[in-house]
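User: Run a structure prediction on this.
Assistant: Running it now.
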Amino acid sequence: MVEENAIVQLKKLSKRFDQDQDVLSDIDLEVKEGEFISFVGPSGCGKSTLLRMLAGLTSVSEGALLIDGATPTEPRDDLYLVFQEANLLPWARVRENVELPMKLQGKPKITRQAVADAIVELVGLQDAADRFPRQLSGGMKMRVSIARALSVSPRILLLDEPFGALDAITRNQLNEDLLKIREKDPFTAFFVTHSVAEAVFLSTRIVVLESNPGRIADIIDVPHSYPRTVEFRESPEYFDLLARTSKSLRQQKGESE
């Protein structure tokens, strides 16, 4: 049965990079508009490969991947992938980095500048708009990377451990900021993380993967409404979900040892 308003469907999806070993196997998942899906699981279970398949950067070996009911045959303007590294142009200022996707799309300069200014303010970097990447902290660089993605108003945003290299305090703040940004500029999110706390805080659903090959072992609903703040992090509901997700993840790691 297809979920109402499902925009992404993975049907018996499998991926192998050689003939003897599946990286992902029999992935079944349907995602509705506006969901925030986090993938967690042992290293090597195919989380990042799954994002690359959604982005159209890696082909499907078996099964189907559908967006709006159709197999993507070319890159989509409404989908953007944010990597763990910010990958900013070192010779370009913050505003110019944010303008880059629009420039590649051929949008006029006056439009690019207006959108970039609005997005830079949205991510709280208006005072740093004329700085170069070397003048930014790690957290600020990730804000620029996310702003660059938001400049093209993606309907689907893929995030591959974007905060993995940051300290816990900065990561928590950027988690809160990401959800605030999403309230103002809504998108459906697919998020890869090794942090259970991050997955619980951000998600509508957490998909736990087992490895060898990567399969869906558990799907955990996070029924808490948005917006989410530090109060949610301190609530019994949060700690219950943290414990349940951690237990599920430990079971998958045990199976992979």
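The domain at 6-78+156-256 is CATH 3.40.50.300 (Rossmann fold).
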